[in-house]
Amino acid sequence: MPPLLKMNFELYKKYFMAFTKTYLRFLGTTFLVVVSISSLLAQSGSALFNQAQDLYKQKQYFEASVLFEKYLAMGKKATPSSTPFAVEKKVKGKINKDPHQEAVYQLAECYRNIHNYDRAEKYYKEAVGFSEKAYPEARYWYAVTLRAKKNYPEALVQVNTFLENHTEMDQLLISADREMEDLKFIQSQSERVNDVCVLKEIKGIDPEFGYALSQRNGDTVVFTSVRKDQSPGKTTEYTNALYESVNIDSPLLNAKPMSIQIGKDVNDGMATFSHDGKTMFFTRWTKINNQTISFIYESHLEESGWSKPEKAPKPINADGSNSAQPYLTKDGQYLIFTSDRQGGFGGYDLWASALDSNYEPILVKNLGNVINGGGDDEAPYFHNKTHTLVFSSNGRVGMGGFDIFYAQGNFNLTGWEKPENAGAPLNSSKDDLYYISTDEDYVWNTGWLSSDRSLECCLALYDVKGNNAQYVNGQVVDCKTRKPLAHAAVIVTDLRHPGKILERMSTDTAGRYAVALHNTPRFKISATLAEYEPGFTDYNLKIHPGKDSLTNEIICLNPITYPEKEINDLLKSLESVSHLGNFAYKKAVLNPFMHENLDSLSKMLMKYPNIVILVEGYTDGIGDVKYNLGLAQKRVDACINYLLRKGVSASQLEGKAMGKCCPVAPETIDGKDNPAGRELNRRVEYKVLRH
Q1: Are 143 and 162 within 8 A, CB to CB?
Q2: Which residues have CB under 8 Å from 153's CB, separation 6+?
Q3: Model pTM greater than 0.85?
Q4: Contact between 52 and 62 (Cβ < 8 Å)
Q5: CA-to-CA distance for 162 and 136, rounded, in angstroms?
Q6: pLDDT tens, 323-360?
Q7: pLDDT digits (tens, 9 = 90+) for 293-312
Q8: DSSP structure string for 485-534
Q9: How far apart are CA 296 and CA 286, in angstroms?
Q10: Which residues partner with 556 through β-bridges?
């Protein structure tokens, strides 16, 4: 291979992925290399320049950049003998057009449009030295490129210079004012501590990158990525496709394309699912004559797999417009999406369709001019519990490109709060989209977003975790003795994901434990120890950025009791008659002391329903036998009725009036009356009959 040809093929390889970013975000397309580079390299400088300009006008920026680079590399020899403009008409600011300057400026534009800001900076830097009348936008776009590269001080210098020299009241001046506001906002973000959350890029192997991650159900997630289709003897095609993974922690590993019907030159992406994971809405788009055409499709999971995708009915899709990026709310009542249909306030607006129980559209409404601005508003998500709408916009003051914004409101009402910029580090100087929270309680605690902040070629997935920590400590004790229990096993599990263990540890000699949790508002702490019943406590915390300390309430463990041994021990303790209490003279009224004894007895009888007791009532020796038997029966009935009210089964209770028999104390001493003895004889006792 000739050196020159090899150099250009390397250039082609280097910048190919940069081109794919244009459709990876939303306005994507199947990439077909329409220029045969090997044949064009043999052309003259004039032919290269003319071909590059044609491609530039067709917005085929990658192909145009390859040819502009070749043309500029040829130097002065490449100057066209006749300019590519067949008629030398006087265009304002461009009376004398220099082909070299045209190539430099348009090459900078090519690189900016394919988001290769490193190369764009080089050529804009040269272009700002040209005539400002000929290239009035050069310095503005130079500033935008510097901002995208995070060179904020120099970007501010270039914007100021532009505003000083550009006096015409036009859209360019408005854009420059907006760029100045963006740079001021970025400065305010850099001056504060951006420790609200931490972002970690999610990487894979095949596919290497993905974007627009959503949760289908359980640990199954779906995302969009580029699929390479290469048939022998045919041009390689790159399309967007939906991928599915059951690895929620590393979704790009072992991911496989979803089994849905796909047509030729069709891109699929940005999927959303019903709560049961059986209904899917997604975006399907094609590129025709360099024009993107997109619609929202739906498919249903059947026994044989996903049904053939069908275009969602009107008014979700509208004739003559694009609809894309659907999000189905968790309750299944609304489908939010972006569309450039008539009736909006900017380029792409956010719309919401009310749905019936079969996910059929009822009414579509624009979310209004509080949410929708003058630019593009895309990538909607709604957090049900906090009623927070999250979306991305390039039409508001931000950090550059698409920024993530949020606003609280209600679809049933017309009012939404003014959107707030989510700020750094969720937003960057590049494009930040497709934020979805994975925490049902707090929007920003955990989630996913897509951004090109670390790549020139395309959007990448990022895992978002709130920068917070909960330092939890507590103690495990014996419920009866309240003594600390050493070496108890303590396990912390996530209540939002049953079975997911967060930490394991053992208590120290003082029965204490300590654990550091992150992004865990709801959790359970369980403790176990041999010869003890397990104990646990559930917690529901309010998460705040930073570090919190929490001292748990004591977890007490009850010693394990073995029924047979306990019954035997109980029976031994009841071998002698058990005393329930004494009564006043001629009375059958229970006193407080007897209430306590009867309460304990009722608990024992309900715990062991096979035990049957005999309640015996006694009197003193005053009175005849008939009277004392009647009084004794009243005392027995008083005790049995109390036990019944406490929930003891009648089958466990038997009673017998004993009268004045069987005194436990003498009622006379040395022929004198003994009131204390008579009181001891006025009693009720019980004994176990069966068990």
Answers
A1: yes
A2: none
A3: no
A4: no
A5: 9
A6: 999 999 999 999 999 999 999 997 999 999 999 999 99
A7: 999 999 999 999 999 999 99
A8: -TT-EEEEEETTSTT-EEEEEE--TTSEEEEEESS-SEEEEEEE-TTB--
A9: 12
A10: 477
